[in-house]
């Protein structure tokens, strides 16, 4: 018996259809794989964000006007700004006492950590128990590590702020219970921003520390900062980020007073800033070894702000040598007021500085974002 095997001839059209189906199946598989990868990435981001929020229950801040959200409002002093045009770009165009047109660094830090959108002043009369649980700022505009800096300005010294923190801990225990309060204190992130007023005002402007040269006064400031950190550690604080000072010779007010007709950056101020930052960073390294179970990091504000100033157009700024308020050359705090509204800029996003010393909200965001991304995760 013969067996015949039938071979059907496959047409060109059928071959093309088969190839097309294979290609379609391949593309669908690739698309499915891509969507799966995107899904995993989204889940990872959500988990990481939730972990950060869980691990960082609160943000606690000490320092000067850069991070003061209104603690000076009730003081009889010059270093306050709870009046227009301050806060004109803040929620509700409210002059809360923040030394800017809108948000300040601690607002951005708190929001980027997923804690809350705004970090309130500890002395805010409307402060709630929830605010206590998630953090506050004790900062006072005009303060410094050197007590005399704040005393002359009639504002709260760093040591006054430390006393407020002790009071805060007692309130926290009442609101959350002793055990939970202790955990919040231990797991929270603490930010300290001070030193600029010591250099710019106490040393260079007044004669209050005329018996010091720059290196010896820098050492005095660094030891005061070290003592402050040790006191925080004794109160249960374990995660601390302390910022260096900015390039003080390039802020508008210093350019105007000491920068000559062309208002150049003043090198001696910047040199003092660099020296203070170097010595402070070294001291923090020593403290990290000396203080058990503590995480203490140096936040390099100088490099970021110097880059923003020197390469301002790259970041979309049209003006980096003067502030938005008034002429932008000397106006700050009480000198930056509604009477100067005709001279005040219309678009703050084009200005790096809001007044003659403090950056705009947009500049603060550009400053804070790399700090949160590159430095603060070390503390988580």
TrEMBL record:
Q: Which InterPro entries match?
A: GDSL, GDSL_lipolytic_enzyme, SGNH_hydro_sf, SGNH_plant_lipase-like
Tell me if Transmembrane helix is a UniProt keyword of this record. yes
Q: Which residues are listed as membrane-spanning? A: 30-48
State the organism of origin. Answer: Rhynchospora breviuscula
Family annotation (PANTHER family): GDSL ESTERASE/LIPASE EXL3 (PTHR45642), GDSL ESTERASE_LIPASE EXL3 (PTHR45642:SF150)
- GO MF annotation, one: hydrolase activity, acting on ester bonds
Query: Which top-rank group of organisms is this from?
Result: Eukaryota
Protein's UniProt name? Uncharacterized protein
Q: Would the keyword Transmembrane helix turn up in this protein's UniProt record?
A: yes
């Amino acid at each position: 018996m013969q067996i015949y095997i039938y071979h059907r001839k496959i047409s060109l059209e059928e071959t093309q259809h088969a190839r097309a189906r294979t290609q379609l199946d391949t593309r669908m598989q690739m698309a499915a794989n891509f969507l799966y990868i995107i899904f995993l990435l989204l889940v990872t981001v959500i988990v990481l964000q939730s972990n950060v929020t869980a691990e960082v229950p609160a943000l606690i801040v000490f320092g000067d006007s850069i991070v003061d959200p209104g603690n000076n409002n009730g003081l009889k002093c010059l270093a306050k700004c709870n009046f227009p045009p301050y806060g004109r770009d803040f929620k509700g165009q409210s002059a809360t006492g923040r030394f800017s047109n809108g948000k300040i660094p601690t607002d951005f830090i708190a929001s980027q950590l997923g804690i809350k959108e705004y970090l309130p002043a500890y002395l805010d009369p409307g402060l709630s128990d929830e605010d206590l649980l998630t953090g506050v700022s004790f900062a006072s505009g005009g303060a410094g590590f050197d007590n005399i800096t704040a005393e002359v300005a009639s504002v709260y010294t760093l040591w006054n702020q430390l006393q407020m923190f002790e009071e805060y801990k007692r309130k926290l225990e009442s609101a959350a219970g002793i055990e939970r309060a202790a955990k919040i204190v231990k797991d929270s992130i603490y930010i300290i921003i001070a030193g600029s007023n010591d250099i710019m005002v106490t040393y260079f402007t007044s004669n209050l520390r005329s018996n010091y040269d720059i290196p010896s006064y820098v050492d005095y400031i660094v030891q005061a900062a070290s003592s402050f950190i040790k006191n925080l550690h004794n109160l249960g604080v374990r995660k601390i980020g302390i910022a260096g000072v900015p390039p003080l010779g390039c802020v508008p007010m210093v350019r105007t007073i000491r920068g000559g007709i062309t208002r150049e950056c003043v090198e001696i101020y910047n040199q003092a800033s660099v020296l203070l930052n170097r010595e402070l960073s070294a001291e923090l390294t020593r403290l990290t070894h000396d203080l058990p179970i503590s995480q203490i990091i140096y936040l390099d504000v100088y490099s970021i702000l110097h880059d923003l100033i020197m390469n301002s157009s790259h970041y979309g700024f049209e003006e980096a040598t003067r502030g938005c308020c008034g002429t932008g050359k000397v106006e700050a705090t009480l000198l930056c007021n509604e009477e100067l509204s005709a001279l005040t800029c219309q678009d703050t996003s084009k200005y790096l500085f809001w007044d003659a010393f403090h950056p705009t909200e947009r500049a603060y965001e550009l400053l804070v974002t790399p700090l949160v991304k590159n430095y603060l995760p070390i503390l988580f």
